[in-house]
Inverse folding.
């Protein structure tokens, strides 16, 4: 790991530590590897999707140190020491309430945007700023859905916010 | 993306030194603009200097106002209780931009230095004076729907894409920087520049200088303000035209007026004459229209962006009405009232 400061020449791989879904990992990364490519290509965590690779779709949304971000625009080397949660780390066993709500409300068609939508929704609920449907729509606007499942996505998020059936079922 | 070396700066001095000594090095903060441009080969730094571990991530009281560190994420600024109480215009403008994910990653300094969204600038297969000085500006005779109507030159008609900066312009913020020759403070109006014959320079920052903070003065526009942003879709899109309005009112009379426009020029656009024309007048459509006319008298349309002149006129009138009435535009309820 680079301690406080340090410098590396082009071509060098750099040792970093990341806690991914609760597991501490020592990794060697090239400085130009995005967090998205590290997850998908090196760590085989392909749940996080690459839609646009330019910050324009939200398919790559993951939670880094408690905040949702686009993994495609983050350089892995810069996240040294961070804690990353991906869709694979959302639940152990039973579905996470947001996952259950997406199933219950039919909140996807092809499913490609879904991991990003779910990670974004989990963060939205944690942030605690959205109450109305309008607010859910705005705070989910960083996640595009080519299939246009938006109405059902809002339904799913709303149901979890209201602590409705999805949460109760998952808890049972 | 090109191959590059990586430096993690341990101090501001170290970052300044690494940057100043290498013309092809770039600072990286949130990375949401720089990494994007690197993927398009528009930026090809030979070294990235990661400043994210520097102690520039605090919002502090400063001379009656607030000092926002260059590394404070956009979302942190927008939800800070001191910002929402005293500078709600700034919070509103930030929330009008990008997406929750991007605002979490984007830094205050990076937002200032984000580059234009001109499609030719992004396309290395076309000429562009901003990307390759002297190669030409295909936007002038090409597709220019999103381009500028004010302050353009024969060399570039790009706009500055930031929403946050439009609010900072209206609030008369100061940008504090540090470079090889020491620190200096740049008034916001002098930070971004017009393209002139050097469109490759977006700002007056010299290579080697790093933004340390944005300082907000002790001036309260928390009652009469609005950030009104008009765009092709209601969220997650750059402004075609935006208006930041901040007023101080004496009953129905405008005491002080600040008005900045986004999406229309190479920098947030202010017009001192128009602002003075509002002061001492009774708030109302006539007064607002006269100010809009003053601002837009010098507007110059290109083939596809002529609509921006009328759009700006209406946005100015509506924005001033919202500010005067104390009913700012909501960034979640998208209806414009
Ligand atoms: C899909 C998409 C939509 C967007 N929509 C909007 C929108 O609607 N409105 C809006 O305003 N913005 C929008 N943005 C832009 C976003 O706000 C910027 O990308 C972001 O603010 C840049 O901050 P950053 O920290 O990520 O900068 P970086 O990418 O890290 O850096 C950007 C530039 O700033 C320089 N830099 C960074 N910090 C400093 C410093 N302290 N001192 C000197 N130089 C520095 C870097 O060298 C680089 O040149 C959008 C971006 C994307 C990808
Ligand atoms: S408008 Fe400016 S950025 Fe766009 S092509 Fe012309 S020179 Fe390049
Ligand atoms: S893949 Fe990251 S936003 Fe589209
Ligand atoms: S379900 Fe297909 S893109 Fe959203």
């Amino acid at each position: 790991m680079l301690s406080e400061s340090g410098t590396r020449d082009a071509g060098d791989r750099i040792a970093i530590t990341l806690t991914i879904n609760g597991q501490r990992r020592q990794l060697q990364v090239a400085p130009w590897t995005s967090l998205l490519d590290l997850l998908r290509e090196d760590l085989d965590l392909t749940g996080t999707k690459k839609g646009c690779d330019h910050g324009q779709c939200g398919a790559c949304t993951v939670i880094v140190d408690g905040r949702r971000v686009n993994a495609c625009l983050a350089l892995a080397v810069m996240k040294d020491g961070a804690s990353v949660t991906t869709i694979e780390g959302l639940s152990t066993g039973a579905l996470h309430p947001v996952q259950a709500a997406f199933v219950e409300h039919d909140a996807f068609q092809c499913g490609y945007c879904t991991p990003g939508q779910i990670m974004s929704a989990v963060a939205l609920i944690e942030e605690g700023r959205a109450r109305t449907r309008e607010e859910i729509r705005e705070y989910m606007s960083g996640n595009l859905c080519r299939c246009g499942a938006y109405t059902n996505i809002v339904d799913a998020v709303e149901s979890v916010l209201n602590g409705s059936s999805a949460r109760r079922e998952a808890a049972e | 993306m090109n191959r590059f070396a990586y430096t993690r700066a341990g101090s501001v001095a170290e970052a300044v030194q690494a940057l100043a000594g290498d013309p092809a090095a770039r600072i990286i903060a949130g990375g949401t603009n720089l990494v994007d441009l690197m993927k398009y080969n528009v930026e090809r730094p030979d070294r990235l200097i990661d400043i994210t571990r520097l102690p520039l991530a605090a919002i502090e009281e400063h001379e009656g106002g607030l000092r926002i560190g260059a590394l404070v994420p956009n979302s942190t600024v927008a939800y800070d209780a001191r910002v929402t109480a005293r500078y709600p215009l700034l919070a509103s403008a930030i929330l009008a931009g990008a997406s929750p994910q991007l605002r979490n990653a984007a830094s205050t300094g990076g937002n200032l230095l984000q580059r234009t969204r001109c499609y030719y600038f992004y396309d290395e297969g076309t000429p562009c004076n901003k990307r390759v000085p002297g190669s030409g500006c295909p936007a002038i005779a090409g597709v220019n729907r999103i381009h500028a109507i004010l302050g353009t030159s024969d060399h570039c008609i790009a706009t500055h894409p930031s929403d946050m900066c439009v609010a900072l312009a209206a609030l008369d913020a100061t940008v504090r920087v540090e470079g090889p020759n020491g620190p200096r403070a740049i008034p916001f109006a002098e930070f971004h520049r017009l393209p002139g014959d050097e469109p490759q320079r977006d700002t007056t920052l010299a290579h080697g200088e790093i933004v340390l903070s944005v300082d907000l003065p002790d001036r309260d526009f928390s009652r009469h303000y609005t950030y009104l942003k008009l765009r092709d879709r209601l969220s997650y899109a750059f402004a075609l035209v935006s208006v930041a309005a901040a007023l101080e009112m004496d009953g129905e009379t405008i005491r002080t007026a600040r008005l900045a426009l986004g999406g229309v020029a190479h920098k947030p656009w202010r017009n001192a004459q128009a602002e003075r024309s509002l002061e001492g007048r009774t708030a109302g459509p006539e007064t607002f229209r006269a100010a809009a006319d003053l601002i837009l008298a010098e507007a110059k349309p290109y083939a596809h962006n002529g609509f921006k002149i009328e759009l700006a006129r209406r946005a100015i009138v509506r924005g001033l009405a919202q500010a005067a009435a104390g009913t700012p535009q909501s960034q979640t309820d998208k209806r414009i009232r």
